[in-house]
Amino acid sequence: MNDAATDAGIAAARGVMVAHFTALNARDGTALAATLHFPHYRLSGGSLKTWDAPAAYFGDFLARAGDGWHHSALDSVEVLAASTEKVHLDVRFTRYRADDSVLGSFRSLWVIAELDGKWAAQLRSSFAA
Asked: In this model, does residue 1 exceed pLDDT 60?
């Protein structure tokens, strides 16, 4: 059973994921960057990508999102492990074109951490391109 502080961390981590996808779909780079800690790390396809600062993050996303990306949707967010300072999430999401046809569905592991009083994504490992 989780204690109240761990439950609060889980709620904060889920909130980070919702805010991340909301900002992504709004194409709001500032709000998107607010959901991430920097440096931010992403492991995909055998490569580790590091963003030291928010400036290039959204542009890099657009380059890999797929031709015709319009929006993404969270399909599920499951807690794998949690503490008062860090939460591991099993995240499933789908990328869509403007006509709601599917570009792809993916699974990733997100690590949401509280650093200096701010909950945000510190790293993730993704099967998405």
From this structure: no
